[in-house]
Amino acid sequence: MGVNPFVLNVYRSPSYFCDRDHETAEILDAIEQKRSLTIHSIRRMGKTALIKHIFYKLARKKNHHLIYLDILDLTNARDFVNALSSSIIASLEKSQEGFIKKVTKSFGKYRPVFSVDTITGAPSLALDIRTDPDVQFSLDTVFSFIGSQKKTFVIAIDEFQQVNEFDIKTIPATLRKFLQQYSNLVFLFSGSQRNMLLELMTSPKHALYRSTQLMSLDRISSDAYTKFIQNHFRKAERKISSEIIEDGLAWTMRHTYYTHWYFHRLWSMTSAPTAKAAAELKRRILQDNEAVFLNYRNLMTKAQWKLLSAIGKETEIQEPTAKAFLSKHRLGAASTVQRSLDFLLNAEMLYQEYQGKTKKPSYRVYDVFLSRWLED
Q1: This prediction's pTM
Q2: Torsion angles phi and psi, residue 196, rounded to 5
Q3: What angle do CA 285, 287, 290 make, to 5 degrees?
């Protein structure tokens, strides 16, 4: 059957990475020119894979220190400093054997504990950080090491909006200080809670205001996806019609995660997909997820579920409180619908999408498979 080319959750190599040529070129140019950048999109649109793709290309040049840090599960500044320090020092240790010994003295008063990951062999640093000044001193020390290096440091911090949850609120201001202080430092911030992330980057009341270039990650084009899918089937001496591809892309709405999931499953089902096989796969996917979808219903009020179902049936809607929409789906008063809408947006069951230059957003169900299930 061969290696499934529709990779899920990990980055393998450029051969298994679809398109993003424009975004890749723009990010590489930003790094070359020392411009920090913020990538934002809805969840599972491929931000992390794009960053790993960029790192793959930069690693071949061997003139960068590349650090990737996902902070979604971090809840305080102390853990952030530990994670970031470990990543930076591990990167330096690879190029300068014995570097860890050099930093021990600098962190002496925080009783640094060094360990080595038994799987990756990467060194890890844990510091006894307890106060706000400790956090600041630790960051100052780590970034002073960066400033003393000749190579460019590219630090990617995924789900960056999580800093809003930290007990110490000065982390963004500190990072901006380092951006202004060290010429060999570039940050790639990314996140999927778009409103929160963009607030951090574009509001004058926040320290990182207008400090990075903004990049919105949208859907990959049908043409690019079709070419990518056809090439992999051709290489494996398999057959797939353009009609089957077009149908699959329409059903997954070209949302990166759901598209890869769908074609990953289709690849494993048959070497020559037919319309019948595609229909069976859709049925299986919805059936596999039905218990989850029913649980969503149990966790919502009747009004919230009715609104979610109505938007799912329409695929997208621009004016969810308009009389015609309320009447068609018997949703009741506009004020009730507005409360339900706010809840569903905050719970990330719905999302807003701006297309083109329109000032009005379209509302969609976040989970594409749920949206398709609600259509029935």
Answers
A1: 0.92
A2: -65, -45
A3: 110
